[in-house]
Amino acid sequence: MNSKVYFLKPLLVFLFSTFIFACGAETPSNTQTPRISAHPQGADYIQGTTAELSVTARVGDGGSLTYQWYTNTANSNNGGAPIVSATSSTYRLPTGTVGTFYYYVVVISTNSAASMISNVAVINVIPEIPRISAHPQGA
């Protein structure tokens, strides 16, 4: 009879723990993953001009959304580096350096911590086009 008690006690502890975890008050039962309806769009910008990326997202469970923008060295929305202080639905890009740059954003629901990753926005920063301010005069 004692062997049955030793077997049942761990089983009951496991079942009770699982039930308590599954019914935890921290996570609402109607949590949803955020949905991105407008992904950031790639574009070409002239060096030194103002450039901005944006994302439009929503979540239907009443939670709030948080954002984290990333930069990457490859055309991928995986393995990028988080951009410090880039935590809103828009991000103003640096355009001081000529080159091709890759950006994406992770949108996170505060209710469930579920997230959605945007498509990659490919940004090309091209050199400023020289302007002729004075034409040569004929001799």
Overall helicity: 10-25%
Helix count equals 1
Runs in which pLDDT lies below 50 for 5 or more consecutive residues are: 1-25
The radius of gyration computed from the alpha-carbon positions, rounded to a whole number of angstroms, is: 26 Å
Order of helices and strands: HEEEEEEEEEE
Classification by helices and strands: alpha+beta
Tell me how many strands there are.
10
The averaged pLDDT comes out at: 82
- How many angstroms does the end-to-end distance come to? 117 Å
Biggest pleated sheet: 6 strands, mixed
Strand content: 35-45%
Shape: elongated
Could you give a short description of this structure?
This protein has one helix and ten strands. It is α+β, with helices and mostly antiparallel strands.
List keywords for this structure.
single chain, alpha+beta, six-stranded mixed sheet, 10 strands, 15% helix, elongated, disordered N terminus
What does this structure look like?
By secondary structure, the chain is an alpha+beta fold. It has one helix and ten strands, in the order αββββββββββ. It has one helix at 2-22; strands spanning 35-38, 43-46, 51-54, 56-58, 65-72, 81-82, 90-93, 99-109, 115-117, 121-126. The strands form three sheets. Strands 2, 5, 6, 8, 9 and 10 form a six-stranded mixed β-sheet that branches. It has a two-stranded antiparallel sheet with strand order 1-4. Strands 3-7 form a two-stranded antiparallel ribbon. A hairpin with a 5-residue loop joins strand 8 and strand 9. The protein starts with a helix and ends in a 13-residue tail after the last strand.
